[in-house]
Amino acid sequence: MNRGFTLVELSIVLVIIGLLIGGILVGQSLIESSKINSFIKQIQQYDIATRNFKMKYKYLPGDSPVHHSIANGDGVILDTLNTLNNYNGEIDFFWPDLSKEMGGKQYISATSTLKAGVNFPATSIGDNSGIFASAVFAGVFPTTPKINGWAVAAWNASTRNYAANTDVHESLPVTVAMAIDNKIDDAVANTGSLRAIGNNAVPTGMYQQEPPRTACATAGAYNIATTEATPCGIVIEMFAQIGQSVYK
Fold first, then answer.
1. Domain for residue 25, yes or no?
2. DSSP letter string, the chain
3. pTM reported for the whole predicted model
4. Domains in the chain: how many in total?
5. Domain encompassing residue 102
6. Could you tell me if 194 and 141 are in contact, meaning their C-beta atoms sit under 8 angstroms apart?
């Protein structure tokens, strides 16, 4: 005669299922934490390497007239039009210059398109994410002093313009951006040495926008209720992770 499971047997099965689900969730959390820690180590490494480059040549990578005739050595990393809109000029020179001094992975200047891991470092977090270096202006950080930063954000690979309000979004889930902010800064989206940028109605021009939009954050709080998968970009003040922050 066929018989069903007893209540005890069902309870054991449910406990086993619960343990399996709990183990999977813990494993996912550990993987996510490992990715975030790896990214933070990347930023720290680049801060040190950039400082060493400046000590050696007296100029920042990309901004060095020793290496590039069109670089002006003013301490601000910009494109050929003296803006942040395009991935060319000093912005494009930055990673090839720095990687030659660091050894290891060598990055090359962009030709017609952009690719993480070729023209600039890829990150271990987020979709379509790479680490760009350039000046940061009003809207994310105060207008003065003009500083440079590390950004995880999306660029249009074919036009080499900042890819705002497009399908590629800003590269990071809100929870990941918030976790990074919590680990290395103040966990507030629009203050300190790490600032969030959102992809909602962003004007043309890298980082030149209002404070974080509602897709990513509003009034300094990260918007974890957003339904967008990767609405956040972040900008980290260059040299902040080696104790040389202006805003932390």
1. no
2. ------HHHHHHHHHHHHHHHHHHHHHHHHHHHHHHHHHHHHHHHHHHHHHHHHHHHSS-TTS-TTT-TT---SS----TTSSSSBS-HHHHHHHHHHHHHH-SS-----SSS--BTTTB-B-SSSTT-BEEEEEE-TTTS-SSS-EEEEEE--B-TTT-BB-TTSTTTTSB-HHHHHHHHHHHS-S-TTSSSEEEEE-TTPPSSTT-SSS--TTTEETTEE-TT---SS-EEEEEETTGGGT--S--
3. 0.84
4. 1
5. 31-242
6. no
What does the pLDDT average to over 28-52? 88
Residues in the chain: 248
Closest to 158 (Cα-Cα) out of 207, 115, 127: 115
pLDDT reading at 1 higher than 90: no
Q: Is 87 contained in some domain?
A: yes
Show the tokens assigned to 47.
């801060």
Any domain includes 9: no
